[in-house]
Amino acid sequence: MRSQQQKNSKNRFLILGFLSFFLTSLSLSAEEFSGAWFGEIQRSVSSGVSGGVFEWTTGFVLIAGGVLASLLPCVYPLYPITVGIVRARGEGSPKILHPAVYYLGLVAVYWCFGLIAGFSGGAFNVILRYPFTNLALSVLIFLLALASLDLIHLPFFQSKEVNIGQGCKGTFLLGMVAGLLSSPCVGPVVVAILLQITAGSGAISIGSILLASFKMFLFGVGLGFPFLMIGVFGLSLPKSGKWMRWIQWVLGLFVLYFSYTYFQKALSGWSVPERSISLAAFGILILLVCLYFFLPEDWDKYKRMKKTLFLGGVILSAAGLVILLSGGVGGVNASGVSETETKGNLTWFRIPQKAYAEGKDTDKKVFIDFYADWCTNCKAFEELTLSDSSLNEALQSAVLLKIKEDDPIFATYARDPRFEELKIGLPFFVILDSEGNLLYKNTDYQDTKTMIETLKNQP
């Protein structure tokens, strides 16, 4: 008994050390890791999954995430059973027919998820303007991460029995049901990815809808790939073992990362410094880990985690209330808007009237960057203005104006019929000539080629 308790204690401290190392890595700011591998991976995963463009790294991340999800302990044992059922349904038919139809049904479900994400992207971006919304999403995704790690049970991800008809139609429906109710492990990962996609969909268009659906289609391709291999080609699966637990932890940390990004957006919206956000996240995790490890050992892990979340919620709510009442998180721009803001070798006006006056006096074009602290792509463009030499040179020849979402003047621009994109979300970029005529507008921060051409072309 004592040796078992010692083993449990050792495992707990190993887990604590692992989680501490993980969040400590997150706590190091992107500026400290500028150009390093972690910063590049962080930006690639976040902007790739949620961005309005598609790169090969995005496809790799989504397919790999699907494959990893298919190897989770609560999904993996279902594959040989499902393969047997599908093969039995396909007796007398070509060997590849029913497995392929099942696979298409599974992938179709995730394609539909992405389609819905594309249609809801614009509305979701409007909601994401509020820091409290981002904080609520951070808590939700954190719970999904715990569910991925099998530390809590979320009842809406539990499997249900469904009656399926015969023939290819029934096999297709069987695949769809497998996609919808695959397991409590896949569900949290899917929700986390969908939230990222809807957050970055931007203005609703045919392109954005098709892109969102294609991203989830790739996740479904990865999720069903092992089944296709064993169903069509008769490949045998390796035996279950501890390696599956490591897969579970990899996906759990992947979902936990998304939770941190929304936590970061929420506190940035309340003007909390970047370094303080990372330390706050680290402190919260350590608090929860300590509460979990010091609860009675005779409780099962689900009861202990449930009690940990309750006690942690009470402590954090009390701390948040104290900070709020003491004015520790004040209103944004409480001291007013400064006239200019300098980033690298670029100086941005913060007051529109002064920028327009400067543009008229110097006969220069006015480049307007509509910005928000919670907007990942806004920050990515801010980095581009300094790292992209061609863009930086073009911007130096123009009058630069940065309007933040919390500026009083932002609402005036949002009501302007020329800038209806502001009702959808951010980022948003505008170029005006010296007389205030609209020359260019776009929500794609990577459309630097057109921006440069517009700025350099003579009126």
Short description:
By secondary structure, this protein is an alpha+beta fold. 63% of the residues lie in helices and 7% in strands.
Q: SSE order in H/E notation?
A: HHHHHHHHHHHHEEHEHHEHEEH
The average pLDDT value, as a whole number, equals 74
Distance between the termini: 83 Å
- What's the helix count? 17
Radius of gyration, rounded? 25 Å
Tally of discrete structural domains: 3
- Low-confidence blocks of residues: 20-45, 159-164, 330-335
Helix content: 55-70%
Largest sheet descriptor? 4 strands, mixed
Strand content: 5-15%
β-strand number? 6
Shape: flat
Structural class by sheet pairing and helices: alpha+beta
Biggest sheet, strands in spatial order?
A: 4-3-5-6
List keywords for this structure.
459 residues, alpha+beta, Glutaredoxin, two-stranded antiparallel sheet, 6 strands
Description of the molecule:
By secondary structure, the protein is of the alpha+beta class. It has three domains: 1-271, no CATH class; 272-332; 340-456, Glutaredoxin. Helix content is 63%, strand content 7%. It has 17 helices and six strands. The protein has helices spanning 2-27, 37-50, 56-70, 78-89, 97-127, 131-148, 167-180, 186-199, 206-232, 242-269, 274-293, 301-326, 352-362, 376-387, 389-396, 410-415, 448-456, and strands at 340-343, 346-349, 366-371, 399-404, 428-432, 438-442. The strands form two sheets. The protein has a four-stranded mixed sheet, with helices on both faces. Strands 1-2 form a two-stranded antiparallel ribbon. A hairpin with a 5-residue loop joins strand 5 (428-432) and strand 6 (438-442). Helix 2 crosses helix 3 (56-70) and helix 11 (274-293) packs antiparallel against helix 12. The longest helix is centred in the first third of the chain and has 31 residues, at 97-127. The N and C termini lie far apart (83 Å). The model is unreliable at 20-45, 159-164 and 330-335 (pLDDT under 50).
